[in-house]
Amino acid sequence: MVLKSQKIIVRRVRINGFNECYNKARQKAAIETGLLIETFSVESPLTPKETLNPEYLPD
């Protein structure tokens, strides 16, 4: 049985991993485009859940 605290830890690790990936992508996009990194949002415009949903299309 997974404890509630274990679920919280797993969720935090998953979110931190998502944020790390987004920040790496942000840096890579700045390098590839030659734009300032500030051009790209500090936080992902999508939630981790939205990025995993193949049916999700942003407005």
Number of strands: 0
Q: Please compute the radius of gyration using only Cα atoms.
A: 15 Å
> What is the total domain count?
1
Helical percentage: 55-70%
Number of helices: 2
Structural class: mainly alpha
- For the termini, the CA-CA separation is 40 Å
**What is the H/E string?**
HH
Mean pLDDT: 85
> How does the overall form come out from the CA principal axes?
flat
Regions with pLDDT < 50 over 5+ consecutive residues? none
Strand content: under 5%
Q: Biggest β-sheet: count, sense, barrel? A: none
Describe the structure.
Helix content is 59%, strand content 0%. It is mainly α and 59 residues long. The chain has one domain (4-50). The longest helix has 30 residues, at 4-33. The mean pLDDT is 85.
Explain the layout of strands and helices.
Elements: H1 4-33, H2 48-52
List keywords for this structure.
59% helix, single chain, 0% strand, 59 residues, mainly alpha
In a few lines, what is going on in this structure?
The protein has 59 residues and is mainly alpha-helical. Helices cover 59% and strands 0% of the residues. The chain has helices at 4-33, 48-52.
